[in-house]
Amino acid sequence: MPKPEAKINSGRLKALLGGINTFGLNAETGGFNRVGFSDADMAVRQWFCDQMRADGLDVSMDSVGNLFGRMGPQGGPCIMAGSHLDTVPEGGAFDGALGAAVALECARSIRDAGMNLKTPLVVAATSEEEGRFGGMLGSQAISGQIADGWLESAADADGVLLSDAMRAQGFEPSCAGEAAWKPGSIKAFLELHIEQGPVLEGEKLAVGVVEGISGILVLGVRFEGIANHSGTTPMNMRADAFVGLAEVGSSIAGIIERAGTEQSRVTVGKVELSPNFPHTIAGSSEFTIIIRDTSESVMKSLRREIETSIASAAAHNNLKVKIEARSFLPPQTLDLNIREAFLAEAEALGLSHRVMPSGAGHDAQTMQAFCPAGLIFVPSRNGVSHAPQEWTDWADIEKGAQLMLNTIVRLAGASD
Ligand SMILES: [Zn+2]
User: Which domains does the chain have, with CATH numbers?
Assistant: First the structure.
């Protein structure tokens, strides 16, 4: 008998994504607002639960709001596939939601093909990935990586405590640890996500197989100079904290040329000048520098060069300086066997593809510290994401979804 073949039903997938995106839509802007633990986030989770239950999956929600729908044999380690359902404020229609929808569509296609998986498949929709409270809460909870005490102190940009936001939605923060899965209970974590960058579109490729995810180092820098009159203070007698900041900013391109790679990203994203008044020389400047690369040693060299640049800008401009490392997430190389499974299935499907890094963080990165994890990208039009203009062509989505489906079946093993 020929092997049964499971095929993605593109219309059904489109309807599922459309269903998810009835939640949190701002009709005026076209943006989606399902930030972690908001009412819209909870409502979409309930709806997604109902969908999975109607499909006959064994559905559960854990103590931090992660959703799971299990199919296949009872017990034993599973293949987990999915992504997040929360969005950034005014986010797009595809970020996260597409990966969760594709995972459920894969389960539906496997069921429709009459396949019996040898390994259970768990469809996952993770919680608070986007970072209202820091991000990756769901995958950190599954993989037992929530730091002690963090949950009680984390707050969003408006000062709302994560613990209060959780309690308001019926979760007990002190039970978050119960969400951790046992070591060995997840054989592989697979995620499909939009690229959120311009590479695949630029190279006219259908899918990207991610090899590694950039690490993130956040530095906080403070230059202390002397606030003084902008008219009476001669240029050579100033301690101008803005000029120090500007010198550091303009040194970044050269630093990347010397010490960086094609994957290096260095960003001064937030700046505060004081007193921030047109007629006064800046007495202090405070800014963040974020360093990203897929290699930890490259990140270290970039950091050294940047600290040297900061020190010399301080010396030039008679400034005192303070640098603090606020957070560090190491780069993560994703599982090689899963990458090879994705590549073999992409070849078999005749999909144009490449291996590529990810500059953005994803649940797969968090999960890799706990179990083998893999991530594929589908193209983002104009590289736009976290905005209502976010778009991926359905022809590409169908290809990426079929690749996910075939890889699940390959890793899980199936008989008819
Ligand atoms: Zn995302």
Answer: 10-213+331-415 (3.40.630.10), 215-329 (3.30.70.360)
